[in-house]
Design brief:
Layout: H1 2-8, H2 12-17, E1 23-24, E2 29-32, E3 41-44, H3 47-60, H4 78-92, H5 100-113, H6 118-125, H7 130-133, H8 135-139, H9 142-146
Antiparallel strand pairs: 1-2, 2-3
Length: 154
């Protein structure tokens, strides 16, 4: 679940609302229905994540939701998902506090640092306004460090 949030830049609610039919393995996309603002959007599906999802599907055989809670046909609980993140941080020895939404922020920041155009990131995140997406531009210092000063050409 954490890997899917990061690899697709999902919101927590989007992950929990996913159904198996929303995974389009032929086109390598995830269909996100009724996202924030009641909009539909798509996210790219990593081949590594697709392989993980196939293994998960064989093991857990979800019926209604991709990630179901203890009761078959019911979505996984939001608080339980936050506990999954807390346990993952503990297992890896990361002391810094983190939230599920930070995985989405990391996704956007890493796309930006790798050279993805801000307009594509806006579309992938489902932002109406480019202003919302622009918050990631100040987070990324890697790109700034790559800029060569014109003074060096003198």
């Amino acid at each position: 679940m954490l890997s899917l949030i990061y690899s697709c830049g999902l919101r927590c609610g989007e992950l929990l609302a996913l159904r198996p039919i929303h995974i389009d393995s032929k086109r390598n996309i995830v269909l996100l229905k009724n996202s924030k603002g009641k909009k539909d959007r798509i996210a790219t599906l990593s081949p590594k994540i697709l392989e993980m999802l196939r293994e998960y599907y064989i093991l857990f055989k979800p019926t209604t939701y991709l990630f179901e809670g203890q009761t078959k046909g019911q979505p996984y609980d939001n608080r339980s998902l936050q506990q999954v993140l807390k346990q993952a941080l503990k297992k890896t020895g990361i002391k810094k506090t983190a939230t599920l939404h930070w995985l989405r922020h990391s996704y956007a920041t890493h796309l930006l640092e790798s050279g993805t155009d801000l307009r594509y990131i806006q579309e992938l995140l489902g932002h109406n306004s480019s202003k919302t997406t622009e918050i990631y531009t100040h987070v990324s210092t890697k790109s700034i460090q790559q800029i060569k000063s014109p003074f060096d050409d003198l």
